[in-house]
Amino acid sequence: MEDILFLLIVGGIGLLFVYLGLLLWIKEKINIMHDYHYTKVKETDKKAYTRIMGIAMIVIGIGCLLSGVASLFIGGAKSVIVFGGSFTIGILMMLYAQIKYNHGLF
Predict the structure, then answer these.
(1) How far apart are the C-alpha atoms of 4 and 59, rounded to whole Å?
(2) How far apart are CA 16 and CA 27, in angstroms?
(3) Segments in 1-106 forming alpha helices (H)
């Protein structure tokens, strides 16, 4: 029962991340982020910046979804390993975009 609850909660969070990632990547809605994250991003770089940040959020969201599904088969605690890998990849992508286009983290 707790695995199903874990799937619902983590899956819902994953879907939210995927949705926000699509807004960033496809719709280029940069305003859903804190403004200090993109204050130094040039207008010509906003498309590339939102693309990388959006894909990174989608990677994190898919990791959440996969972690929830994996919890049904291998248990909740072990399924967090799936999330950890995708979270690490997503955060590294975000750090890359921040440093390259915003010239720093803030």
Answers:
(1) 22
(2) 15
(3) 2-25, 46-74, 76-101
Beta-carbon-side half-sphere exposure of residue 77 (alpha carbons within 13 Å)? 0
Question: How many CA within 13 A on the CB side of residue 11?
Answer: 12
Amino acid at 42: K
Note the pLDDT tens digit of each residue in 4-22. Answer: 898 899 999 999 999 999 9
pTM of the model: 0.90
Contacts of 82 (CB under 8 A, 6+ apart): 63, 66, 67, 70
Q: Is the dihedral of CA 48, 102, 99, 12 positive or negative?
A: negative
Amino acid at 53: M
User: In whole angstroms, what is the distance from residue 56 CA to residue 102 CA?
Assistant: 16
